[in-house]
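Any chance you could type out some protein's one-letter sequence along with its backbone structure tokens so I can compare the two?
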Amino acid sequence: ASHYDMNTMVSVKGKVTKFKLINPHARIYFDVTTDTGEVQKWLAEGNASAILKRRGWTRKTLKPGDVITISGNPAKDGTHKMDWKLIVMEDGTEHRGGNTVAAERLRQLEELEDRRRKQAE
């Protein structure tokens, strides 16, 4: 939170160049092309790999070339970085797993419990 403006949300569309499922924060590197044709290099940070893996993420969840719309809190210093909250793929598939706030943690716990219940059936 010290690096990101937690009171502001931004959404950008870009092409994944690299995805690192690592600790302490997963990282997505992606290129955003502006209306003027300029290519901006962006970085999005999310939750730790252990948390994302429990939610079904793998190293192949995002691949170079994937086009994503990513929403999150922008860097306070104005650089092209964000703390991601939601990723939407071109086909509409949603991936969550940005650094969690209380409401997101609760939603994750409910989703995990639903998954466990379905496996037990």
Summary: The longest strand covers residues 10-20.
